Amino acid sequence: MQSPRPGVLSAITGVWGARISWLVVGVAGIWSIGDALDGRSNAVRATVAAACWLAWGTGLVALLVPSPLGLTISRMTVALAVSASIASWVAGADAVAGAAFVACALVSGLLIGGAEFGQRCVQASAYGDEDRFLLRPPAAFLPPMALAGALWAAAVVAAPLLLATGQWIVGVVAAAVGGALTVGLVPRFNLLALRWLVLVPAGLVVHDPVVLGETLMVARANIDGIELALADTEAADFTGPAAGHAVEVSMVSMTDALLAPTKTSPRGTALHVQSFIVAPSRPGAVLRASQQRFQRAIPPPST
Question: What is the mean predicted confidence (pLDDT) over 113-121?
Answer without folding.
Answer: 93
